[in-house]
Design goal:
alpha+beta, DNA-binding, homodimer, 6 strands, about 35% helix, 5 helices
Chain lengths: ~150, ~150
Amino acid sequence: MNEDAERLLRRHGLQVTAQRLAVLRAVSTRPHATADELADEVRGSIGSISRQAVYDTLGTLVERGLARRIQPAGSPARYEDRVGDNHHHLVCRACGVMVDVDCVVGEAPCLTAEDDHGFAIEEAEVIYWGYCPGCRNRPGSRNGTDRNARG
Amino acid sequence: MNEDAERLLRRHGLQVTAQRLAVLRAVSTRPHATADELADEVRGSIGSISRQAVYDTLGTLVERGLARRIQPAGSPARYEDRVGDNHHHLVCRACGVMVDVDCVVGEAPCLTAEDDHGFAIEEAEVIYWGYCPGCRNRPGSRNGTDRNARG
DNA sequence: GGCTAATACTTGACTCAGTCCAGAATGCGT
DNA sequence: ACGCATTCTGGACTGAGTCAAGTATTAGCC
């Protein structure tokens, strides 16, 4: 598994370091985690890492297309390693949990806006907002009262 | 015009204050502006306002459905007064400009995810990422090099 | 295996958006 | 006009993310 990660980095022209391998593994084992959570995960596996290294590495991974950054409203950035397929996200307003959903329209026609205003559209990011099964059944936590609550 | 804003506030059970009127007007005249920009706009019209009052008022307006908050990746929250219709946004990766686009699918079938994972889905937020006409033609500013550029 | 240049990591200070709090001011119903 | 409830102000604070300078690692070469 480390073999794979190492090759992956090299294939994308990146130097292989313990930190990068660990971050790559963390993104894969904990999809939708924040930079902070990933840092914790990494510390669990290689002992320690600086915040800066985490941000730097994540930035590089996103830039090289090895990871994807999602930034839902009111939440710090989250990262996932599912790239290349056209999937979207479902976020619970109450507890902040995020799950993947496949694109309604299949491939990439999401990319078609009615009027593109002359823009060269590259990507359509879709976030579905709602309440997860757990929070739907927990009274008081789903009427917008705690709209800022998150997990 | 102030008449309208005043009535609007009252109708939604809100006290009418100079600050609220001004914020409401600012949101309407400068769609997609950040809280800070709106504060400036308001200062231009009523002299001065505290940051807190701006955030507070915007929060209230959003809560009562008089305004909508959009938070694209890497950008502070933006506000607009176009509510109730199912429109989305088109954001330029290079200069950060944001324009409205109508929903591809018309009404609200955007709300249908293939598998809702048991969530009660309320809203689908769609952001199209790309490059605006100006930035498309400006070489060097559209190849992801300055992915963080905005403003 | 050791040397060197390039790249990556660490540490700490900093910025920026947004929130919290206590006290002062204002609007609203009577 | 009065008193209460709501709102506004100013300042301190938090949390996410960035900048910059110095140190450590990696990769390529001998």
